[in-house]
Structure formats: structure tokens, C-alpha cells
Write a structure and sequence with these properties.
mainly beta; five-stranded antiparallel beta sheet; 2 domains; about 230 residues; rod-shaped
């Protein structure tokens, strides 16, 4: 231990003679994050300091009279960190480390519900319970059809109800005769991607046809939805 970088103390490796190495090592339990430390190499210009994690080199620091700050990432788990001084000159040298700190990586959570965005089934809508009644991978809170699976969330008319649960084609609040008239006009027409006729393709098989009429009849007199995007 020796006077450090600033008013703290630093750790110093044993002096290494020509052609030898010395090292500082420690083992710790980490979470995903970044290790940052200051390194001072005191030796000849040909000397180097290497930093390794579990025996794998992650940084190399070359000769210099000033402290150098280096950072490297670690994954969650137990790791062996080593700072190794390589004396490639003719005179003894040594290495110092100081100001070692660890910054844990905090995965983004846009909606603040405690579920990281990478696994949140509604990353823009708070839903800590991650409920998904139709098991389509989209949480109820942001699913435009909470009772009918529709992972693509297709909503051709943009009314907040996905096509697969929206047979109220004229948006008057109920599935009725005017909607049936629209469906009849669209019968037999292909419902390719981007086509307005996808609105009438209730089973999303690429055609407006008899199976869609069967689904339509089952929804007669009902409202569109339910949708997590609509009250």
C-alpha cells in the first residue's frame, strides 16, 4: 500500500526485476456492470501492465508517468481480476492501482413497473403482473385484443381494437347489419399485407371468405374488443 492517486491510498504490486512479472489479484462476486480503476505503471518504456478477467486479457497499459483510468465490463458471477506488471526492460518496476469501483448495469425499464424492457410484454405501459390472457406474448395492458391471440397487433382502421376482435367495421359501437354489408362487399377479395381489406379478414388467413363470415356471425350484437388500449 502506498500514497495513491489523490488523497487516498493505492495498492502496489511487488517490484519485478528484468524479465519478470508481478501481479495484484482479487476475487469478487459481481453483477452485470463495469469495473473502473486507475493504473500507474512505474518502469521503463518497454514495460506494460495487463488486466485480465478469469485469465482472459481485457486491457493493456503501456509505460507512462501519469495515472491512467481504465474500464472493462464483467458479467454476473464470481470473477478473478488480475493486474499484471510485465517487466520487459532492464531495471526493476512495479504497478499501482487505485480508485477501484464497480457500476452495476441497470437494464432500462421505460414504464417503471419493475420489469426490464427486454422481458416486459408491455414495455411502454406499466403492468408489473405481466398478465397475458390470450398468451400471444403481448400483455393485457397494451394488447389490442386481450381475449384473442394476435401477436402482430394488426389494427387496420387504427381504432385501438385489433382486427381479429373487431367486427364493428363502421365503428358505431355494435356489430350489426351495416357491418355485414361491408363484409359482403369484401367477400372473395385477398387481404394481403397493407391492404385495407385486412380489416375484414377476421381470421387473418389472407382472404375475406366464409370463415370470416362465421366469425362475424358469432359476434353479432356485441362490441369490438376487449382491448387493453380502450377503456
Amino acid at each position: 500500500m502506498s500514497a495513491g492517486n489523490g488523497d487516498a491510498f493505492s495498492l502496489r504490486s511487488q517490484a519485478a526485476s528484468a524479465g519478470r512479472t508481478s501481479r495484484l489479484t482479487w476475487r469478487d462476486v459481481f453483477k452485470n456492470g463495469t469495473v473502473t480503476l486507475d493504473v500507474l505503471q512505474r518502469g521503463e518504456n518497454s514495460d506494460t501492465v495487463g488486466i485480465s478477467v478469469d485469465g482472459v486479457g481485457v486491457r493493456a497499459i503501456y509505460a507512462g508517468a501519469a495515472w491512467q483510468t481504465v474500464s472493462f465490463d464483467v458479467t454476473a458471477g464470481v470473477h478473478d481480476i488480475a493486474v499484471i506488471f510485465y517487466n520487459e526492460g532492464t531495471n526493476a518496476g512495479e504497478a499501482f492501482i487505485d480508485n477501484v469501483k464497480f457500476d452495476q448495469y441497470v437494464e432500462p425499464d421505460f414504464d417503471g413497473d419493475g420489469v426490464p424492457d427486454s422481458v416486459d410484454n408491455c414495455p411502454a405501459h406499466a403492468n408489473p403482473g405481466q398478465e397475458d390472457d390470450d398468451h400471444d406474448g403481448v400483455g393485457n395492458r397494451c394488447d389490442d385484443c386481450t381475449k384473442v391471440a394476435n401477436p402482430n397487433q394488426l389494427d387496420t382502421n387504427g381504432d385501438g381494437y385489433g382486427n381479429v376482435c373487431d367486427a364493428d367495421f363502421n365503428n358505431d359501437g355494435v356489430v350489426n347489419a351495416p357491418d355485414l354489408a361491408y363484409l359482403r362487399l369484401a367477400m372473395g377479395i385477398p387481404a394481403y399485407d397493407g391492404s385495407p381489406f385486412q380489416l375484414y379478414d377476421l381470421n387473418q388467413d389472407g382472404w375475406v371468405n366464409i370463415p370470416d363470415l362465421v366469425i362475424f356471425k358469432s359476434r353479432w350484437g356485441t362490441k369490438a374488443g376487449p382491448s387493453g388500449l380502450k377503456p
